[in-house]
Amino acid sequence: MWHGGTHERKNLVCSSCHSVHGGNYKNLAKPTQMEVCSQCHKQIRAQLQKTSHHPIREGKINCSDCHNPHGTVTEKLLAANSINDKCFECHAEKRGPFLWEHSPVTENCTTCHTPHGSPHDKLLVAKRPFLCQRCHSNSRHPGTLYAQSTSQAGQSVYSTLGTRAFYRACSNCHSQIHGSNHPSGKSLAR
Amino acid sequence: MTKKNIVIVGVSALFMSFFFLPIGSLAQQDDTTISGQISITGRTVTGRRESAKFEEYRTIPGGASSEVLELKYKFKDKYFLDLRSTGIALDDQNINLRTGLYGKFKFELIYDQLPHRFAYDAKTLYSGIGTGSLFISSAIRSNLQDSTSPVDLTNRIANFFTSAFITDLELSRRKKVKFNFDAMAYDPFNLRVEFNRESRKGIRPFFGSFGFGNTVELPEPIDYTTTEPKFIGEYTKGPMYLTASYYASIFHNNIDTLTWSNPYRVTDSTTPTAYTTTYAAGSSRGLIDLYPNNRYHNLMFSGSVKDIPLKSRLSVSSSWGWMRQNDALVPYTTNTAIKPGAANNPPFDASSLASLPERSFDGRVNTALYNVLFTSRPVDIMHVKARYRYYEYDNQAKKVEFPGYVRFDAVWEPEPNESLPTGYSKSTAGVDVGFDIAKPTTFTVGYTFDRTRRKNRENSKQDDHSLKFSLDTKAGSWLDLRASYERSKRDGRYDYRVPHEGQTITPALPFLRKYDEADRNRDRLLFLATLNPVDPLTLSASFIFGKDNFKNSAFGLLADRHNVYSIDADYALAERFSLLAFYTRDDFKNRQKGRQWSPGGIGDPYLVEPRLESFSNWDTNNRDKVDTVGTGLTIGVIQKRLDFNTIYSLSKAAGHIDITSPLGTPATDANPFVPIGFPEVDNTRIHTVNTKLHYTLKKAYAITVGYMREKYDVRDFNNNGFALVPTLPTGAYNGALFMGTLWKNYGVNVAYARVTYNF
After folding, report:
1. What are the residue ranges spanned by the domains of chain A?
2. Is there a contact between B321 and A172 if contact means CB atoms under 8 Å apart?
3. Is residue B467 part of a domain?
4. Does residue B332 form part of some domain?
5. What is the DSSP string of A116-152?
6. Measured by CB atoms within 10 angstroms of the end CB, which terminus of chain A is less buried, N or C?
7. Does ipTM exceed 0.85?
8. How many structural domains comprise chain B?
9. Which of A8, A133, A190 to mutate to test the interface with B (most CBs of B within 10 A)?
């Protein structure tokens, strides 16, 4: 799949990443895959340093565990048939299918998660509860404005806004966010 | 000496004796090469280590540990054996064995452990940690059930917490065994066999609630096994390449369910709603069905042919997958009080399996992937790429109809509902045409069309048109430039009512568009320049601009933009001196809008305020800014003898959320106050400095001494005022019970000395 792939189109050649005398596994031109890839992917290198991250900078996951730089049939040179298929290789428990699906989960993990690093817990793309409220502004508590009033300034978030904005926010109750197999689990709280 | 250190030293000694015995005889033979490395590290670790964040995915112990043990054996350039291990006997150890005959076969065996730590010294009232049954003694629960008021409950539970269990939450035993075998001896056929088996054990933070706001943080037991065999066959001859593969992934959860005591109840009862405090009424225990066993099989065939007319190549592939899950269902509830007789209860015993419409869920998803790729260079200055891709996630699970459900194990809600299997398919067609306008300069223009069809979601059909331009050029060896711009436009048929037909649910805000399905205009601009003005100096700068405009969304995510700037400098003067520095800023901004409302009340978009404007609306502007700085210096103090190396990095994240809402009166505004935003949203700083001095004594021996400091600070609004038993300003306790598992600050110093022997 090299021909027509992103890297071939960018005029990369074998020696862009490999050295015949590299000495390490796969004869890489740099000591680690991360260093090879970050020659061009500067923004990814910075993302890997963020507080919430996969164990890439610890050396337990390599770029090629998810991507095939030589070409694949999937976007972003992913070495799987879909983004979710790649995630399920390590997170097989989330594959389901479940009795109660959280519909964006079945379609694309990256709707909520960013795999290379995030300032937010669990590699989330935004902060809870606001991330959840991007889609859920239903009646009652999903649509509630979770903000303190000026008279509440300085008080703890728990004492003024309760568990829905405190600690892990929505996930404090909706802990089965990836899908539930419980007959009473339609709101993913069981 | 600890048991762990005894193991480390013992294994190292064994390893060394294994080397030294045969080296004398084998190394003398001209056609045999043996080399390797042994390094032992002694460390002292000091500072604040109470945060598990420091060792989230790694183990840095005090005392002695083996850093690397390596053996490379080669015989007549035919046979090879490589054995490399790191972190022997530590939680993050890795052992890798490769052996084979060059060009004939290769065998690889990998054993890897990955720790995943969440919290140290978490506190809980539950016993049975690590099992599927978490229990609080009847005496405690009986005492709490007898509380006379929320304030009284506060005092009682705080008293019990003084003798809470203290536990670490971690998956310290995520072990993976990988076996790979490649046979290349049967040209033109290649065969590869892979077998992976991973077991994951431990405890992680989890939640179970007994009512609105009465959430209880729980130590969830994890005991998973995943088995993955894979077989790949390849055929390569002349211009033809064919491959076929089979892959399976079998996930098994050794703990099916989790039951946990309700801290405030020792007897079962029902409540009129689940809003009441749970010491007054509710279930004596909760039940969650943990992740069910599942299995996945996949077959793939692909082939390509090259050297067809017009310097063309054609690749096709197809793949079919089968996901299955048929775990037994659990009853609606464990609350034995929800049975016929009492008002509002169902006409059956909700705690009995016999009351379910189905005993198990026959989950079935079939996936299909078809891919065609054609590349050609019809004339020297032009290249063409055309592609088509179809992916389908066909969810064939049948709908299961339920007459109602039990909310928080507390109350039967007679709301008929049915499970909705969601599925989708995505077709992608595109063509790119590139022109080599001058030898090192290529201009490419590409068009891509995506069509997504969904089942049981709001947007049943969605089209995305994308146009992309890119320019890549090289000016000699001193300048490399890459730039691209992409514009895409996504439109579809959004109907907010679709997933809820025939169901009784809390209604959706009709003006909201879920951002993964919403109509969208997207812009992406990328620029990367690498400059080598003089030989040892490399400078590079990159800029990424991205903007998503959800043009037809009145509520939900309205706009999302990000800018990433990066600059790098690298100065390397032979092997004696190198200096590098980089800086990156990620800047994410987005805006979203919501409405606070209740059915029939203020703000109701169906009955009371069926318009976009409302005092109950609210608007947030969210911003995350992350600055990453790094610098490194290497100096060869004495050539090939003494090296000095230091690296420093800082990742600083600063987020804030600004909130506005029009101010009305209590009669017209569901949130009649002036909101203040959150100035601290996941504000974190990670400083790391790593300095070492490496001295090569002789060719075979080296000593390294080093120092590492890592400091982590976090400030975040949803951890402000944290308490295990949080109370309201009145002193009353509202039922939430936490274990204290959010990240804490740390500052750790590691000083080490390492002895390395190379042979």
Report:
1. 6-84, 98-172
2. no
3. yes
4. no
5. T-BSSGGGBSS-TTHHHHTT---TTGGG----EEGGG
6. N
7. yes
8. 1
9. A190
